[in-house]
Amino acid sequence: YDFVTNQTEGTYMFNLDGLIPKICPLAHELGEEERTTHLCSAGLQALSSLVWFMGEFSHISVEFDNVVSVVLENYGGLSKSSSAGVNQDNKIAAIDKELSPAEAETRIASWTKIVDDRGKAIVSVEDAKSPKFWSRVCLHNLAKLAKEA
Length: 149
What we know:
Blueprint: H1 2-5, H2 13-27, H3 34-56, H4 64-75, H5 88-98, H6 101-107, H7 111-114, H8 125-128, H9 131-148
């Protein structure tokens, strides 16, 4: 994350492309355990900086479809559950109650407000550990990338 956000040119572009297939499985970790959540958050944080990098240096990775897939899978916060008693409708209703669209809009600031001049993340501890937060940051960066293209 730090390495990517401190890039001032596209010299390492192809080296960074090679990281995406290794980061996507981290961001795809499923489960409710603390370790799994931290791995997923770290992977999504790294992907958010890579998506920012793609937009900043006008480069779309060949692994772009994997990035989009992982971001969208984590966006809603749905996870595979082994308990058969919880159905999909209950999960969706719980997510809808958790964060209203207006609240989500205010919680996802622009990349310049999330990252300081030195490339460090300026987010609360709660947000830094949240895969949902980082997937929303990724989605924000993807939207900005699409707008610039």
